[in-house]
Amino acid sequence: MALGWDEFRYTGVAGADRIKLAERVYTASGIPLDTMITFHHEMAMMRNFPRRVLFFGQQPAAAGGQTSFIPSNILVEKLQEEMPEVVEKFEQDGIIYTLHTKSKYIGTSTIDTECTVWQRMLKTTNLVEAEKRALEMLNCDKVKFNNDGSADFTYQMKPIRKYNNKRVMWPRLKSYEIGDRETIVTYGDGSPIPSEAIETIEKIYEENCVDINWQKGDIVLVDNLTVQHARRPGKPPRVVLVSISN
């Protein structure tokens, strides 16, 4: 790469519905365009994650479809101001983050559509090897493969990390369901995160983010360690390509 950055590859959950178009170039998420993709750091729940994310606007959406960005440290700072007891609880007890994958893969690729989601993510049907890959690659603390073909990947973690001398909120904190996967997030002691805290977090996102209305040929480069991104619902056609690197 002309900029001299090391190549990074999509794997696991992040790579489940992406198509590699050229060296270092991938399609963006295959999640239907009418669905909001909430704020997140790219590949945040993986053991290895990229330092940089480069977005290229190949085709703007007919309507909507903006990519939104927010410095992750702003979320921590504002939450500290508005609900310091929540930040204290996060730092003291951490969180339990459970990713539940459904039995059947739902995506845009025509390859391996008959496999389960975890088989596609981990690229194996062997349970022993799948567990090994999940613990090593996804960096989860435990995994459970269910009889119906679904799976549960559980993380116990401190959600606030420090990168570049900034305190950032690393995982998604709002439980969600999109396509063939869903998440459940609680405090580390198993108690629910108050709805008021989630509402405050969502308000902070909306009040402090910047929306990019894509024009053909636009390029946006972000520091994945300190900046979160999201995708607004939109109408096709919309093509945004992605390259990740260290």
Automatic annotation (TrEMBL):
Q: Which UniProt keywords apply?
A: Oxidoreductase
- The organism's superkingdom is given as Eukaryota
Q: Where is the TauD/TfdA-like domain?
A: 31-238
Example GO molecular function term?
oxidoreductase activity
- What name does this protein carry? Clavaminate synthase-like protein
Q: Which source organism?
A: Iris pallida (Sweet iris)
